[in-house]
Amino acid sequence: MLPLDAAEADLPTVGGKGASLAKLARAGLPVPPGFHVTTSATNHPEAEQAIRKAYQGMGAVAVRSSATAEDLPGLSFAGQQDSFLNVTGADEVVEAVRKCWASLYNERAVDYRRRNGIEHAEIAVVVQEFVPADAAGVMFTVNPVSGADETVINAGRGVGEALVGGEVTPDVYVLKHGKEIQRQGDTLTKRQTNALSKLGARIQRLYGMPMDIEWVLHKGRFAIVQARPVTGLKEEWNDSVMGDFLWTSVNLGEAVPSVMTPMTWSLVRVLSQQASIGGFPVTGNIGGRFYLNLSVAGAIRKPDEQLLGMMPETPPKLPVSKLRILADLIRSAPPLIKQAITYRRHLGELIEETPKRCESLISQIKKATSTKQLRALWPHDLLYGTARTLDAGARMVTQPKIANEIRRLVGEADTVTLLTGLGELASLGPLLGEAGHRCPDEFEVSVARPAEDPGWIGRPHEGAEELLRNQRKARDEVWQRLRNRYPRRAKRIERHLAKAAERARDRENARSEMVRTFWVFRAFVLRAQELTGHDDLFFLSIDELLDMLETGNRPDTAQRRETYERYRELPVYPPFIRGHFDPVAWAANPRIYDETGDPITGFPGVSGVVEGIARVTSTVDELQQGEILVTTVTNVGWTPVFPKAAAVVTDVGAPLSHAAIVARELGIPAVVGCGDATARIRTGDRVRVDGGRGTVTVLS
Fold first, then answer.
1. In the chain, what are the domains?
2. If you count Cβ atoms within 10 Å of the first and of the last residue's Cβ in the chain, which end, N or C, has fewer?
3. 3-class DSSP state of 403
4. d(Cα 18, Cα 1) in Å, to the nearest integer?
5. pLDDT tens digits for range 85-121
């Protein structure tokens, strides 16, 4: 026997569940007290007396199996061995421990080990005080469907076994940075979900990875009864799952036209200073592409006329009060006002100084001889000061107010001609063979700049100068007609256009120099790759890279690279997106979003789109290989048949219920908690299951 928080309570000694509980207890987390029956005690006659002695003074307890192959990264063993709750009395505890030992050899546990190539496993038992829960449930510290940085909580009243087993549809709460962004149910208050998410964040920091946590609530206090690494999680970059918002890539898609690496997205987020309003994101990453949340942006100010004319619908209103939005705007106003003042006063200096400063920084970065020396060179103020200020200048509206008057005088075509050539714009640099720091994907830091090629010599593109000459000629002709017809107005218009030309030059120069700062950030990452010998550092965020240079700890990037490549293979997504959008499903069949049928809807369980023949059944022995399983509810007894299923659909459940957890572990698309799937689908129907969107469509 060992105390629950014993330092010796490691995996070989107390199994996966026991080792995890011991780690939590040693860290001061609220774990019910108890003791371990170690693996060496299994089936030993002397163990009975030791169990009785350790149990003395305890009342009702939970007796849980803890196998040595349990709760490992990539394997959950969820529900494979037995556990018993509310056990009272020494004889009953001893009997429950014996049953836990025996469960190591039950059919489902043996089959699970065989399928996962585990030849040997031992079993320990955890005995803890039983908490008579008022509510209980599970919590993921990462969204198990989208992979988003969110806390997802499932809750139900009582001890929670029915919820974990997938027998009831629970309340669902989704939190971002400790604040609720989605609420379905009233089992927990907002204060309680916030407190629980903080416990989840502590546990994730303790383990250094996303965690699947079982919790109970008794008399207003939370206790943690299990924590294991998230298994079967497929990384997704998709902020559209955060709620019913209208997103757009208009304008942003031009500036950031491709799928972003994690490094680029982390830098872009720094520039997007006003990260949220009312707890909702202003900008987002959908399938690796940059989108603006019009639902949030529209709450700040009315979109410009051009964007309004393109919008397919009015953005959904935010589910928060106007006072909350106003309060957030007031809090965020001072730094934005300060930046605007800095822009007006110092933009000219910044534009003039930035080229020399960037050249000097790149030179210093290339000369760095160690990771610590490189870390000390990180140009923090270049990102948070110069680049942000230049970004403000780059977004400045330059359309002259007098444009409408010009249209009335000379018509639309001549107005367009007249408004071109408002000064020598920096955006023409690449066309003329200048500006070697500009390129089509210039904000993507993993992309090389033209001037990085030693053989690069700036030359005008063929025919560029002739095109510019023709445009100047056409513009001069429009001016001549305007002066001849409206000589007095022409002088006033000319003064206004001169001011507009100055603003246009400032805007374009600001953007050009902001792009130049991204070349510095690129040089920093390239030098880090050279010094560390790793060629994948563009798949880290900037904070992760800086931490790696200090500590040497490098997150695994294999899954991020795979996610990046998966999104890169897809066509460009629609310019407007409403609600949850699955890029992979859309690319496979874009018309799915235009169908007017009434699909069956539920909780997204596991992403993926599958078409196949449905098997509506309530027993485990009817499902045939490759069929889509449609049933009321699944519990642990269904686990052996899951590998046969092409997809899983249930009436009852949630993203963290049994069906979703097992399907996720096996990589099977799933939609759970549909409510009426078994009533609307018949065996033999051909159906499409979209696990990412949470829809099931009967095709025939």
1. 1-130 (3.30.1490.20), 350-533 (no CATH), 588-698 (3.50.30.10)
2. C
3. helix
4. 12
5. 999 999 999 999 999 888 887 776 777 667 665 666 7
